[in-house]
Write a structure and sequence with these properties.
Elements (H helix, E strand, L loop, with lengths): L3 E5 L6 H14 L7 E4 L2 E5 L4 H9 L3 E3 L2 E6 L14 H8 L4 E7 L15 H32 L3 H18 L11 H8 L9 E6 L10 H13 L2 E5 L1 H9 L2 H10 L6 H12 L2 E7 L3 E8 L4 H8 L1 H5 L1 E7 L1 H6 L3 H6 L4 E3 L10 E6 L2
Helix pairs in contact: 1-8, 4-5
């Protein structure tokens, strides 16, 4: 399953520095968390998950294979991008292909780095980018609505349903609100997502702060966090300079460096995990002597769908899933102990997979 999170932002906010640190960090973790460059601006990055180390030790696994998320460093945006200014058209075409947006905001003062808008205002920066995306979405919808109205007026049921969905987005956009604020029924969510609206995508605000604020954030990042909370979005505080330094350190020196600035882990680890969560994903595991492996499914997935992520034959011939919750697997020191404690479960096709489930699937060939 390929999930993409696009990294966007105005020029000189630290977007590319963050992406470079992300790729360097992943490359340095090659033993457990390999990184591969698909294109110069695309990074396929492992999702850090300390549970895997624990499971692998218990099972004596020879290999650890993490789940992954793809980050795309999207071409810089400037005011007027919706009208083709700068690399606007390239930016807009790329962002339509991602599943979520990680929006890097400049939350630091530095006289040596000019700001394209001539001021330090992360909330204003966010509004510039959001406005350009809303304008582009609105223009796209208005072009599609006219021919659709003719079909709807002639009585085509499918056209009427699609038009109604589009109008939900148009009403919001004309009111200066992103399409993700639409009030949708569960049945409308899938077709709505297929409209290809950039402002319908979930947003992660990445607050790029100075080194001294890497652990606690600053006044700028706190404003962004408040904005994210009000919108139901997510925010994470990161210092691009710090992340760049961490990425270049040998593994045995990283912990001391992190301790010295009050961090438990690199900020990029948090960014990866929050991005993964933002996409509505969760992890289940398969564990054995050969490998401990993480698999990705969307929240709400049932057991047969999870089996299908491993192999389509598993879903088609699904019988049941042998399931142990992660804490029970650890407490029992493996499958045998979990069985003895009565924590081994046989789940059927209606079972909704929980994050951290250790699973083995029974299926007909």
């Amino acid at each position: 399953m390929g999930f993409k999170c696009g990294i966007v932002g105005l020029p000189n906010v630290g977007k590319s520095t963050l992406f470079n640190a992300l790729t360097q960090t992943a490359a340095a973790q090659a033993a457990n968390y390999p990184f591969c460059t698909i294109e110069p601006n695309v990074g396929d990055v492992a999702v850090p998950d300390p549970r895997m180390e624990t499971l692998a030790k218990i099972a004596g696994s020879q290999e650890i294979i993490p789940t992954r998320i793809t980050f795309v460093d999207i071409a810089g945006l400037v005011r007027g991008a919706s009208k083709g200014e700068g690399l606007g058209n390239q930016f807009l075409a790329t962002i339509r292909e991602v599943d979520a947006v990680a929006h890097v905001l400049r939350c630091f003062q530095d006289d040596d780095i000019t700001h394209v808008e001539g001021r330090i205002d992360p909330i204003g920066d966010a509004e510039v980018v959001e406005t350009e995306l809303m304008l582009a979405d609105l223009e796209s919808l208005e072009k599609r609505i006219k021919p659709l109205e003719k079909k709807a007026n002639s009585g085509e049921k499918e056209a009427k349903e699609q038009l109604a969905l589009m109008m939900k987005a148009v009403t919001l956009l004309r009111d200066g609100k992103p399409a993700r604020q639409a009030d949708l029924t569960p049945e409308e969510r899938a077709p709505y997502s297929q409209l290809g609206l950039m402002t319908a995508k979930p947003v992660l605000y990445v607050c790029n702060v100075e080194e001294s604020a890497a652990a606690e954030g600053n006044e700028y990042s706190r404003k962004v966090e408040a904005k994210a909370k009000a919108e139901g979005a997510r925010a994470v505080v990161i210092s691009a300079k710090v992340e760049e330094e961490i990425a270049q350190l040998p593994n045995d020196e990283r912990k001391d460096f992190l301790d010295s600035i009050g961090l438990e882990e690199p900020g990029l680890n948090r960014m990866i995990r929050v991005g993964y969560d933002l996409l509505g994903l969760l992890t289940f595991f398969t564990v054995g002597p050969k490998e401990t492996r993480a698999w990705t499914v969307t929240k709400g997935s049932r057991a047969p769908q999870a089996a299908g992520v491993i192999h389509t034959d598993f879903e088609q011939g699904f019988i049941r899933a042998e399931t142990i919750a992660y804490p029970d697997y650890v407490a029992g020191k493996g499958e045998a102990g979990a069985r003895d404690a009565g924590k081994f479960r046989l789940e059927g096709k209606d079972y909704v997979v929980a994050d951290g489930d250790v699973m083995h699937f029974r299926f007909n060939n």
